[in-house]
């Protein structure tokens, strides 16, 4: 008898973990983690799954549409909630605990929406690798009683990507798309103008084929971060002069380049 692949065994284990919960809602961002979790939940609970997606101005342009495409491919239509983090003072202040406050607010809203629809458990796509990182938002999950089947089943980021590829998810190799607030210097208040500059900058870099780039707004300094394999191209004279001119045209006085972690 042919042995099952590691990915098939892993997905079965994830489905088993999800099966422990009845009447579930899934926090669905459109990233590979929440997509795999949603696929497992749908496999187990079918159309009884409530997928919740928060649409905010802190998302990178196009991320919402990509998330909806992934959900549609899974046969799911998420409940989309229009949210404005600028109206949450503790988030807009952009302290070291911004992510905690934002996650707490977001998941309070998700829990309320889930309860209104008779869903008793909210599932989140945190994976096991995330537990070893500095992620203030994880404290909010614990305090609110959010369950994390991927992390609880020992799914590392590599396992998530491999299993998502095996499952046929189109976004299995999607770069991490953290919210644009992470590009703003800490303790500098979040504003629509700053986020708009970041969005313009990353759109420009994507046009230059820098996948998974980061355009960081650090006051008068603009820091461009790309994947390690793209760094030599970033600092090539012709490309760098073009980027430098673009950034100064946005009002930055200094521009520097560097690399970023694969999932950073």
UniProtKB/TrEMBL annotation:
The protein's matches in InterPro entries, at most eight in alphabetical order, are given as:
LarE, Ni-pincer_cofactor_biosynth, Rossmann-like_a/b/a_fold
Q: Which SUPFAM superfamilies match?
A: Adenine nucleotide alpha hydrolases-like (SSF52402)
Residue numbers annotated as active site: 179
GO molecular function terms attached to this record: sulfurtransferase activity
Tell me which stretches of the chain form a coiled coil: none
Give the matching PANTHER family.
EXSB FAMILY PROTEIN (PTHR43169), NAD_GMP SYNTHASE DOMAIN-CONTAINING PROTEIN (PTHR43169:SF2)
Record's protein name: TIGR00268 family protein
What species is given as this protein's source? Desulfurivibrio alkaliphilus
């Amino acid at each position: 008898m042919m042995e099952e692949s590691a990915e098939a065994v892993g997905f079965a284990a994830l489905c088993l973990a999800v099966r422990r919960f009845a009447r579930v809602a899934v926090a669905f961002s459109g990233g590979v983690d929440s997509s795999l979790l949603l696929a497992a939940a749908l496999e187990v609970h079918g159309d009884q799954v409530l997928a919740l997606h928060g649409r905010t101005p802190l998302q990178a342009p196009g991320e919402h549409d990509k998330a909806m495409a992934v959900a549609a491919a899974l046969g799911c239509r998420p409940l989309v909630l229009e949210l404005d983090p600028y109206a949450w003072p503790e988030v807009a202040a952009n302290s070291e605990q911004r992510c905690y406050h934002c996650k707490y607010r977001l998941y309070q809203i998700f829990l309320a929406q889930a309860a209104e629809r008779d869903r008793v458990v909210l599932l989140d796509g945190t994976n096991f690798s995330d537990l070893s990182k500095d992620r203030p938002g994880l404290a909010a999950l614990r305090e609110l009683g959010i369950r994390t089947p991927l992390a609880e089943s020992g799914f590392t980021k590599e396992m998530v990507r491999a299993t998502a590829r095996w499952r046929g998810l189109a976004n299995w190799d999607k770069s991490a798309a953290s919210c644009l607030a992470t590009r703003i210097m800490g303790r500098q208040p979040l504003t629509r103008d700053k986020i708009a500059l970041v969005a313009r900058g990353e759109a420009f870099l994507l046009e230059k084929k820098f996948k998974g780039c980061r355009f960081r707004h650090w006051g008068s300094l603009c820091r461009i971060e790309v994947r390690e394999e793209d760094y030599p191209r970033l600092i090539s004279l012709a490309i760098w002069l073009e980027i430098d001119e673009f950034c100064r045209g946005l009002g930055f006085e200094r521009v520097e380049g560097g690399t970023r972690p694969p999932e950073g």
